[in-house]
Specification:
heterodimer, A: 605 residues, mainly alpha, two-stranded antiparallel ribbon, 18 helices, 2 strands, 61% helix, disordered N terminus, B: 382 residues, alpha+beta, 5-stranded mixed sheet, 12 strands, elongated
Chain lengths: 605, 382
């Protein structure tokens, strides 16, 4: 019912009735401001999220290149760094506090601003209305606000890079007391306040967006689009939004208590502290309480990152294998199982905090349970490819890469989720390898797959294939070269978040490897710039899309014009008669969802 | 910017430009050739690369292992019994997950190659099969039960109560060093309170070494709210702390074969006592003491022979981000024989002596004479 208020239908009507009233394309006068800046069109908002996310991704990636420079070449100085970064790299060497600032911001930016805001924001906005057959989101206005809160949060977080005492530098997990005590670290002075404000705005954005996505999917599906006919992208985005709506407020309340501890003299997380030469008055707080609150968001957060990627990959797999996704109901069921379990496993991040061992054992059991729905998904993707007729579009390549990375990173989750092994591997490079592969790189692969696949829908043009192939192969090989050897560093007990390993007897044997990893990281980063270039170049100069359905897909977004206006369908909203995966049925390459079931059609679903 | 800087940027830009031009040209070529033909060509190349990636990838996994395995902790035995349990579970997990890894990656890339687009073939319409779904729900579930079973068995063993004869050592983390405290001849830790910490007076841990009155904040009187009363707390000196030994910026000494229980504290932010060779780790949380126990199996000397590294030492690495000096928060553990330990302990002076050098008779335990101390220590060490 997105547009009724514009058209003067205040009375409550059903979705379909409104749609029938709206045969015309939007005829409001669009100014530059309403079309490109304060747009309420879900497709434009998706692009805004995507491009903001890409800018953040470049910055977050660049941060990792900079701190990898220190890790790979700890004894060298790079005078040109000072030219670029000024006081961050006096004498051509990144200083300790800036190293930690980079590490912290890299995590914060990529986890929240790129892989949550950028990924969900883009594809939930773009695909939900288009695939369920709606003219826009349930509330286009809140949707617009969602982007602008995201933008505001981005600005605050970005501003924190420029303040005197530097941005927050205690790790993206923001553990107090470190984050609460300015005396414990310069980054915990004003930088921590900026971090909190930036995250608060981000969380508001995420809630406005999430509520909208849920309302839209539940209420605004077109005629015939029952939940069991929903494309898996929409299912994944629905569960993602539910996870976000239920878990982000907990993070917000958690950091709000840090604000009180910082500025109002409370002792939620502080007790018995002697810092900066004096004993603090705080007694009775629990530093571990924050970790419970943080990971109650933090763990669902990793599924908020990976579920949309799973949805995009499932869709792209089916389309390019020219086969239905194998086990649609199992795919939905496993998404549901993952979403439920996401809330029951948070303390597996806390096995070595002094947690009650019995409580720990419960979390071991629940954590390893997640491997079951994950395994179902992997086997279903494999079976989808089995006896397919696979087209290796850039999107499909990234989808295959996603599955490979998800397997590799998922299996090490079985190591870390088992508390006994976690005692040894906790906070080592093994953990870095695990989560970068399973939720960092593979979520990026899902995102790349989505961008390549839906670029024609977004801009009416194709991205350049040759650049895309280079992008894929270098990134896939590079990701493994960077993160695979880190498992070995972890098995040597090498801790995360160290500025320099040279004084350690146990960890200094990897200097050659560190150099190698840093070099590969730089190459991979450069290739991402190639992707960014391809993206922006293709917006203006890419090969034009000539047919409305270039991938021969069944879903509704390909029934809109090549460049749909606000409202998506110039005529009536199409009606849906079948599920989204009738590929290769009865000898036909594909049957669009809009085609009524024929009298002689075989019954499979 | 230096000339090299410019040079690097120029080369990068040139590389970008060339790649881009080639990519653009290939797009034109594909239009000339016809979309279908160029699609088929690209598809073949990418499908072939999938197999190449699989083969090279598996070789790479083997090669990486060959290069790096010897740099991990695994070629040598774990230095504690708990660590041996952890290593066992690690191998079990590696076998199970390794098999799944190889099988699924081979299937993935092999399918990608084998079922690449072919005009003559039609994709097989195969939407679901409940039997298959049940199979790959139950098999992972069973495998995971095995892992959970082993895992929890060892977990409760490791996190269970320390044996009664365990030596107790208190570890305190502060930015950015470790302080160790041994209970002294009375085998009892003296009380401490964080408000008494005073590095200037050589009381790093806030030991209750003298009677102290702590002035608290003023608060309104309960009966008459216009009046303020000041709160204060009387703290009595705890004689049990007079003989405690405090070790700072020097190694912690442990006895081979004797269980040790660490009582872990932090003064400022969260730290973590990471003991890679013992495969153990425990957070140090301000305000909430934690514990961890283990039994060292090899002396430092023995470990030097086992690893063939004459400079080997057991290291304590801080494993929880604790501020800018996190990476330098290093401690050393010396595992020695019982006799060596008794000798070492005999040489340690109670920290109280430095705090109050002329206390002499005030300390009830008396500044232990070496001979006396050796006796006491052997009692403690049993």
């Amino acid at each position: 019912m997105a547009n009724e208020s514009f058209h003067g239908h205040p009375e409550v009507v059903t979705t379909h009735e409104v749609h029938h009233d709206e045969h015309h394309v939007h005829h409001h006068k669009e100014t530059f401001i309403t079309k490109y800046v304060f747009s309420q069109d879900h497709k434009m908002i998706a692009k805004q999220f995507l491009i903001t996310g890409m800018i953040w991704a470049i910055m977050g990636g660049l941060m990792s290149v900079l701190f990898r420079l220190q890790l790979g070449y700890p004894d060298q100085t790079f005078p040109w760094l000072e030219d670029i970064l000024g006081r961050w790299a006096r004498g051509g060497k990144i200083s300790v506090e800036n190293y930690y600032a980079l590490v912290t911001m890299h995590g914060t930016v990529l986890v929240f601003f790129v892989l949550t805001g950028g990924l969900s924001g883009t594809f939930a906005n773009l695909l939900i209305p288009l695939q369920i057959g709606a003219r826009d989101m349930a509330s286009p206005f809140l949707n617009m606000l969602s982007y602008w809160f995201f933008f505001g949060g981005s600005i605050v977080m970005l501003a924190s890079l420029f303040i005197q005492t530097g941005p927050f530098s205690g790790g993206w997990t923001f553990y107090p007391p470190l984050s609460a005590l300015g005396d414990a670290s310069p980054g915990s002075k004003a930088g921590a306040d900026y971090w909190i404000i930036g995250m608060a705005l981000f969380i508001i954005s995420s809630l406005l967006g999430g509520l909208n996505y849920i309302a839209t999917i539940l209420n605004m599906r077109t005629k015939g689009m029952s939940m069991s006919r929903l494309p898996l992208t929409c299912w994944a985005l629905l569960f993602t939004a539910i996870l976000g709506v239920l878990s982000f407020p907990v993070l917000l309340s958690g950091v709000l208590l840090v604000v009180f501890d910082r500025h109002a003299g409370t002792s939620f997380y502080l007790a018995d502290i002697f810092v900066g030469g004096k004993a603090l008055p705080n007694e009775g707080g629990s530093a571990i309480l924050f970790q419970h609150l943080f990971w109650f968001l933090g763990h669902p957060e990793v599924y908020i990152i990976i579920l949309p990627a799973m949805g995009l990959v499932s869709e792209i797999m089916a389309i390019n294998c020219r086969k239905p996704i194998f086990g649609y109901m199992a795919m939905v069921g496993s998404l549901f199982a993952i979403a439920i379990l996401a809330f029951l496993v948070w303390a597996h991040h806390m096995f070595v905090t002094g947690l009650n061992p019995f409580l720990g054992s419960v979390f071991v059991l629940l954590t390893l349970l997640i491997a079951v729905p994950s395994a179902i998904k992997v086997f279903n993707w494999l079976t989808t490819m089995w006896r397919g007729n696979i087209r290796f579009t850039p999107a499909m390549l990234f989808a295959v890469g996603f599955v490979s990375l998800f397997i590799s990173g998922g299996l090490t989750g079985i190591w870390l989720g088992n508390s006994t092994l976690d005692i040894h591997l906790h906070d080592t490079y093994f953990v870095i390898a695990h989560f970068h592969i399973v939720m960092g790189v593979s979520a990026f692969f899902g995102m790349f797959a989505g961008i390549y696949h839906w670029f024609p829908k977004m801009y009416g043009r194709y991205m350049n294939n040759s650049l895309a192939y280079i992008h894929f192969w270098v990134t896939l090989v590079g990701a493994y070269l960077i993160f695979w050897p880190m498992h070995y560093q972890g098995l040597a007990g090498m801790p995360r978040r160290y500025f320099d390993y040279s004084q350690w007897l146990s960890f200094s044997q990897f200097s050659d490897l560190n150099k190698f990893i840093s070099t590969v990281a730089m190459i991979v980063f450069a290739v991402q710039l190639l992707f960014v270039f391809n993206f922006f170049y293709s917006i203006f100069k890419g090969r034009r899309v000539t047919s409305t359905n270039p991938w021969h897909a069944t879903t509704l977004e390909w029934t809109t014009p090549v460049r749909p206006g606000h409202g998506n369908w110039p005529g009536e909203i199409p009606e849906v008669h079948r599920w989204a995966y009738d590929y290769g049925k009865d000898g036909r390459d594909f049957i669009p969802q809009t085609e009524p079931v024929g009298p002689n059609e075989s019954k499979h679903h | 910017m230096t000339t090299t800087g410019f040079f690097i940027v120029a080369i990068l830009a040139l590389g970008f430009l060339i790649t881009f031009q080639i990519a653009k040209a290939s797009e034109y070529v594909s239009i000339l050739k016809g979309e279908k033909k160029s699609f088929e060509q690209n598809n073949k190349i990418n499908a072939f690369l999938m197999v190449v990636f699989l083969v090279l990838g598996l070789i790479g996994v083997w090669y990486c292992n060959k290069l790096l395995y010897k740099k991990t902790l695994l070629p040598y035995p774990s230095a504690s019994e708990h660590g041996e349990n952890i290593d066992t579970l690690l191998w079990i997990t590696l076998i199970i997950t390794g098999a799944v890894f190889i099988a699924t990656q081979i299937l993935l890339f092999w399918f990608a190659f084998k079922y690449q687009h072919n005009d003559k073939r039609k994709a097989y319409y195969y939407p679901h099969n409940n039997k298959l779904e049940v199979i790959w729900t139950t098999i992972p579930a069973i495998a995971l039960c095995v892992l959970v079973g082993f895992g929890l068995f060892y977990w409760f063993r490791i996190t269970g109560e320390a044996p009664k004869e365990a030596m107790q050592i208190e570890v305190t983390g502060k930015q950015f060093e470790w302080i160790f405290r041994y209970p002294g001849r009375d085998n009892t830790f003296g009380k401490k309170y964080f408000r008494l910490i005073d590095p200037g007076k050589l009381n790093q841990l806030g030991m209750l070494w003298s009677d102290t009155t702590l002035q608290g904040p003023s608060r309104p009187d309960h009966h008459d709210h216009t009046k303020m009363v000041s709160t204060s707390t009387e703290l009595k000196a705890d004689p049990a702390g007079f003989d405690d030994i405090i070790i700072q910026s020097k190694p912690m000494y442990l006895v081979k074969g004797q269980p040790v229980k660490l009582i872990i504290n932090a003064q400022d932010v969260i730290h973590d006592v990471g003991l890679p060779h013992f495969r153990l780790k425990m957070d140090a949380v301000p305000g909430t003491p934690t514990t961890m126990w283990f039994t060292p199996k090899y002396t430092t000397e023995e470990m030097r022979q086992i690893t063939g590294n004459p400079n080997f030492d057991y290291e304590i690495a801080c494993d929880q981000m604790c501020g800018n000096g996190h990476y330098s928060m290093r401690g050393v553990i010396k595992v020695v024989t019982r006799d060596e330990f008794i000798l070492w302990r005999a040489q340690q002076k109670p920290a109280y002596a430095d705090f109050n050098p002329n206390a002499g008779g005030t300390a009830p335990a008396g500044d232990a004479q070496p001979a006396d101390s050796v006796q006491a220590v052997s009692k403690v060490v049993k």
